[in-house]
TrEMBL record:
Domain SD-repeat containing protein B: 1-68
Keyword Transmembrane helix: no
Pfam families the record matches: SdrD_B
Species this protein is from: Pseudoalteromonas luteoviolacea (strain 2ta16)
Location in the cell: Secreted
Name of the protein in question: SD-repeat containing protein B domain-containing protein
Domain of life assignment: Bacteria
One term under GO cellular component: extracellular region
Main location: secreted
Signal sequence segment: none
Keywords per UniProt: Secreted, Signal
Gene3D superfamilies in the cross-refs: Immunoglobulins (2.60.40.10)
Length: 80
């Protein structure tokens, strides 16, 4: 987010090769902790997930030395 406005603009770089992790507990009480790497388009997906417990899942990205961190970006692409 080059201008740090929290919106993906055409001049913003795609975050490729970033580690994204999902953690939490599924509805059966099983701990979930999966990590994936974004593709060339900055996309990622998690497979084999079932519904979470009432607390939901948390998705985090691991900062990379390649990219500068800034304000929270309120955009993501999740596929079921």
């Amino acid at each position: 987010d080059v201008d740090q406005d929290g919106v993906v603009d055409s001049n913003d770089a795609l975050l490729k090769d970033i580690t994204v992790t999902i953690t939490g507990t599924d509805k059966f009480g099983q701990a979930i902790n999966q990590s994936v790497t974004t593709n060339a388009n900055g996309e990622f997906s998690f497979t084999g997930l079932i519904e979470s417990n009432a607390d939901g899942y948390t998705i985090t990205q691991t900062p990379s030395a390649t990219y500068q961190t800034g304000n929270t970006l309120h955009w993501h692409r999740l596929q079921a």
